[in-house]
Write a structure and sequence with these properties.
By secondary structure, this protein is an alpha/beta fold. The chain folds into 2 domains: 6-165 and 350-368, 3-Layer(aba) Sandwich (Rossmann fold); 168-346, Rossmann fold (3-Layer(aba) Sandwich), CATH 3.40.50.2000. It is 42% helix and 16% strand. The chain has 15 helices and 13 strands. It has helices spanning 18-34, 67-71, 106-109, 119-133, 142-152, 168-171, 176-185, 205-217, 240-246, 261-267, 282-289, 300-306, 318-329, 332-346, 351-372; strands spanning 6-11, 38-44, 56-59, 82-85, 97-102, 136-139, 159-161, 192-196, 223-227, 250-253, 270-273, 294-297, 311-313. The protein has a 7-stranded parallel β-sheet with strand order 3-2-1-4-5-6-7, sandwiched between helices. Helix 11 links the parallel strand 11 (270-273) and strand 12. The protein is globular and about 60 Å long. It starts with 5 loop residues before the first strand and ends with a helix.
Amino acid sequence: MSRPRLSWSMDARMAFHGGIGTYIRRLTEALLEEESEKHLCLLGWPNRSLHHPQASHRSYSAPIYSVREQMLPPPQTDRSELLHSPHFNIPLRWTGRLAVTIHDLIPIKMPEQTRSRLARPYMRWMLGQIRKKSSAIIAVSEATKQEFCEYTKTPFSRVTVIPHGVHPSVFQPLGQGKIQEARARHQVKTPFILWVSAIRPHKNPETLLRAFSELKRRGAPHQLVMIGQKPDGYRFPIEPAAAECLRNQRRWIADVPDEELPAFYQAASVLAMPSYQEGFGLPALEAMANGLPVVASQIPALTELIGNAGVTIGPDDVDAWSDGLYNVLFDDDRRRNLAELGRKRAGAYTWKKSAAGHLQIFRSLLSADRHRS
């Protein structure tokens, strides 16, 4: 007996926003590959939206985090009985089934590092609404699930953990020619330490910059290559001596296309991720998939993801970061061992598996509706 056709909508307005955008794009692709009897409607901006040949598309132009977002509910088609909200800004006037993904609680955990004083009270209110109104709650890690449940007093049984995955293209070894082309295009020299993230206070670039300046004083020949958007007016609050040391040794690249990122993972010597707070840690997973050793903060989400396949250090310990990076950079045996462990661990995370987890939840919600009707 064939299964009933699955119909749902996804709010895809953030499809080109950093980590959440990667989640929306990769998950959409995997969902449509995984499920044959389905109808997915992608909701997005009329002038710049995510398109897929197997999905339909509807305009949804309410600004993100706005009052209008709550006054103007997403379009509800006859075939879309369920809405997947891939971020905490759920539409309160949606009348159908609602599944929501929680990525992190950064505005709650670190309100002093948000760009608006309203971010924390807004998120606090929305998290309460998610607890009340959501049919299903998805967390991207056990760490995020624990933070959400403890903060909102939500029973742990109501939240399902579905980790991100690695796109197959990230696993593909590139030839030296393609790697050199990408390096030349962005004026990057080897050897280098890699950072992949938007440059924001909670990502803690200061610890890495200070540790890197110490590495340079110890004679390390490496550049620091930072890939990620930097907010207007943001300045790194580091001492003049470190700034002078970094003057010609740091290369900042605002944006690298998804298809070029593997070239940087495969050319780098180590990925550094000194964050104060993360919900999952996708750059670390992608680095491990490419056999790039990872040195990361000793925080719940990153230790959960990395396990024994990387090095974890307290985010404020500059000396330990300098030593940890130095030991990985100049110990060939250790670097090879971390590369092997990382590849093996990353192999357990796929977007296909993530899509299967989402589809199981969607089918369960819609099946319950059909049994009641």
